[in-house]
Amino acid sequence: MLEGEILHEDCEGHKGVIREGGLQWMTAGKGIVHSEMPSSNSNGITHNKGLQLWINLSSRQKLVEPSYQEIESKDIAETEKDGVRVRVIAGEWNGVKSKICTRTPTMYLDFTLSPGSRISQPIPLHWNAFVYVLQGHGHFGDSKLQHSAAAAHHLLVLGLGGDMLEAWNGSDSGLPLRFILVAGEPIGEPMVQFGPFVMNTQEEIDETIDDFENFRNGFEKARHWKSQAASALGLF
To answer: Which positions fall inside the Pirin N-terminal domain (predicted)?
Structure first.
């Protein structure tokens, strides 16, 4: 969560609040019905900003039991060096490791570069990777060869075969550059997606939808469940 807070709950009875700066890493596994609803401030005005990333699981892990990992803002691994501050959501940076355990090998780094600072970030060869700019204006690529300039709300998909990202804040405005770098190891399996369901074959998708509609194989407790937060907003 970048700003505000989100209320979450599910059919298994889990519930809580993801507050500003906090993190929730949910593994849906075999399936769970849940809701995520924005919380309102004391004036009744909803103002929330956050990032949500969906990561595929390998076929051998798709039917694991659902689980949550939740970390408050103050407990997220963070480090700073030479004008570069990094919040380590997943993976590792400069010897600082995230507390999050990922079933699919993943790097998720939240960078803030002060004016004039730069990074050279290794990325495992052949991993898929992208950059999303949250604030400011920066340069990404090879400072001696080809590079791209990008401002807030722009996404850069990194080319395959590279093993390094260079980024620098050359802004004259004096503003920081904030962006996330996300990278992951390709699973190398066929993928079929329908709505929130992601499996390996159409047959598996059909079976999953049938389980969901008939409250089987992980969806048993969803039969009579309704989100309290959604009901309070008149959505049910």
So the answer is: 1-55
| Mean pLDDT, 10 residues at a time, the chain of 236 residues | 92 90 93 85 68 95 92 96 96 94 96 95 93 95 73 90 87 90 96 94 96 91 80 54
Distance in angstroms (rounded) separating the CA atoms of residues 38 and 7? 6
Range 5-72+217-233: architecture per CATH: Sandwich (2.60)
Query: What tokens were used for 160?
Result: 């395959």
**3-state secondary structure (DSSP) of residue 128:** strand
Helices (H) and strands (E) in the chain, counts: 2, 19
Q: Quick one: tokens of 205?
A: 């998708």
Determine the distance from the C-alpha atom of residue 162 to the mean position of all C-alpha atoms in its chain, rounded to a whole number.
22
Q: Which CATH superfamily is domain 76-184 in?
A: Jelly Rolls (2.60.120.10)
Planar angle of CA 130, 135, 140, nearest 5 degrees: 40
So where are the chain's domains? 5-72+217-233, 76-184
